[in-house]
Design goal:
By secondary structure, the chain is of the alpha+beta class. The protein has one helix and four strands.
Length: 80
């Protein structure tokens, strides 16, 4: 899928010392979508995008967030 170089980073979430999730808004063929991508830090300290990512259109974003919140609540209750 071709995309425009326009990107707006919304959040960076540290996954480990070498990896982080980045949530951004990007233009994909003229349509703005949310992307969650894993970035890795290499020896030279530069963050590089990996092939691991998911692209979510605006019609599915709220439902995905609600599902993640439910998963988080279930994981917390199982840990208690």
């Amino acid at each position: 899928m071709a995309f425009d170089s326009h990107e707006r980073v919304i959040a960076s979430i540290q996954k480990s010392g070498r990896q982080q999730f980045r949530i951004s808004l990007k233009d994909f063929n003229g349509v703005t979508k949310a992307e969650i991508r894993v970035y890795e830090r290499h020896r030279d300290s530069d963050w590089e995008p990996t092939p691991r990512h998911i692209v979510i259109g605006r019609d599915y974003l709220l439902e995905l967030v609600e599902g993640l919140l439910e998963a988080s609540a279930l994981l917390k209750s199982e840990a208690a």
